[in-house]
Amino acid sequence: MLRITELKLPLDHPESMIKTAILDRLGLSAEHLINYRIFRRGIDARNRDSIFLIYTIDVETDNERAILKRLRDDPHIVLTPDTTYRFVTRAPKDLPSRPVVIGTGPCGLFAALILAQMGFRPIMLERGKEVRERTKDTFGLWRKSVFNPESNVQFGEGGAGTFSDGKLHTQIKDPNHYGRKVLTEFVKAGAPAEILYLSKPHIGTFKLVSMVEQMRATIESLGGEIRFQSRVDDIDIDNGQVRGVVLANGETIRCDHVVLAVGHSARDTFKMLYDRGVYVEAKPFSIGFRIEHPQSLIDTCRFGKNAGHPLLGAADYKLVHHCRNGRSVYSFCMCPGGTVVAATSETGHVVTNGMSQYSRNERNANSGIVVGITPDDYPGHPLAGIEFQRRLEAHAFELGGKTYEAPGQLVGDFLAKRPSVALGSVQPSYTPGVHLCDLSSALPDYAIEAIREAIPAFDKKIKGFAMHDAVLTGVETRTSSPVRIKRNADYQSLNTRGLYPAGEGAGYAGGILSAAVDGIKVAEAVALEIVRNLERVA
């Protein structure tokens, strides 16, 4: 097949215009066109009053070679790449031990799924509960201020991505098309088929819950095993080689290959690894607040007269500002038509995050407005970033009144450096609730200064971004892992054979899709290593 990229059509074009545009671009008559399918559809909204759809289309014709030769100077007409996923190996009949996957977030799920599909019958260990029970516990915090430190937004089946917007786009390089494998498996698990072709696909929390359950069932049907409420408290390491994992109940599971996909909030696990001598280093991350505006404001600013068009949906944004003090401020995890959620994993702490349902039809838009920080801001120890996060989160708990309410402030008051005493036109979505105060002590001075400079700069790009009644809630501290568990080219820990750090918690991913792709890569590395070791013994 031939692939046509950058095929630009008006927002309200009839379907027949796609075929006409294909024929025009290829210089074909209709009888030579056998079939076509849309591989990608994006939106060009740079001019909000003249919005276009941008297509990538795979075309089947009866004379592909002649077309390629005739149009060889057109960079937007190429052979369609083969995106078929192929397994790197198959499990031998007699496995000496089964690989263990710690964590059931996107990375862990795909590591286990690929291993299961290759016949390695992985054992998955999850400290939290299965996704339905976990959802009840999470709602317990949101609705009743009752917190469960082992079952919450961060811990439990599906990982932190379950309570998010479910964004499925990434900027990672993916020459092997692993991302296509991820999307295909998601569709098999119940995701809408449109995620295969939308340029910025998303799923939403409720759909993610049922998908995670279906993926679990698939893994189990292939011989995998999933154990919930099975926190790993220790790893048995003998002369630099993993020999097993020790659960909180005292049970030891003997294994030589462990995929560590624990997510960015497994602080006790990071400490255990450091104490066991596994190489861990501090890495940069970001801190800030959540900001909420009326979604209608963002829609109008982004789409103008086209706001509300069904193909456009709720508008998003992506913003960045480089400040005079040398800091960078940017929007993070923007959730159109979503809610701000309580995302702590520790008692007596307040953490914010954002999520959306598939419909994205809530009244507010929200995103993190965060400041990049580096280990220079928390020097002295590989785990110093964790303690830095904890101090901010514990202080946010104090500012919020010690009830798991989030400290909040109107943007106008934040910019004017005065406490907020009453809400305006924007009603914050965070539950258990928002306690109005002065946020100036919620972050280090350099971060407050940077955000105060950035918000008016963002207002120049999205008029109304600095509106007085927009609401800031704090704090956003879990943008990414504060540590990196470094690995070699074979995906194993620098100094611990058989340990495969993976995904966000290990510092190698930054979202659902990138974490899932990393899980595939690590699963392949585990499978190949197992087979090589057996061949050496034989």
List the keywords.
538 residues, alpha+beta, seven-stranded mixed β-sheet, five-stranded parallel β-sheet, 23% strand
Task: Indicate the topology.
Elements (H helix, E strand, L loop, with lengths): L1 E9 L5 H11 L6 E12 L7 E10 L2 H7 L6 E3 L20 E3 L3 H12 L5 E3 L5 H14 L33 H11 L16 H17 L3 E3 L4 E7 L2 E7 L4 E3 L3 E3 L6 H9 L5 E2 L2 E10 H9 L16 E3 L5 E8 L3 E4 L9 E4 L8 E10 L10 H16 L6 E5 H6 L17 E3 L8 H15 L11 E6 L6 E2 L14 E3 L10 H26 L1
Parallel strand pairs: 5-6, 5-11, 6-7, 11-23, 19-20
Antiparallel strand pairs: 1-3, 1-4, 2-3, 8-9, 9-10, 12-22, 13-18, 13-21, 14-15, 15-18, 16-17, 19-21
Helix pairs in contact: 3-6, 3-12, 5-12
Task: Produce a short descriptive summary.
The protein has helices spanning 16-26, 64-70, 106-117, 131-144, 178-188, 205-221, 267-275, 295-303, 384-399, 411-416, 445-459, 512-537, and strands at residues 2-10, 33-44, 52-61, 77-79, 100-102, 123-125, 225-227, 232-238, 241-247, 252-254, 258-260, 281-282, 285-294, 320-322, 328-335, 339-342, 352-355, 364-373, 406-410, 434-436, 471-476, 483-484, 499-501. With 538 residues, the protein is of the alpha+beta class. The protein has a 7-stranded mixed sheet with strand order 14-15-18-13-21-19-20. The chain has a 5-stranded parallel sheet with strand order 7-6-5-11-23, covered by helices on one side. A 4-stranded antiparallel sheet has the order 2-3-1-4, covered by helices on one side.
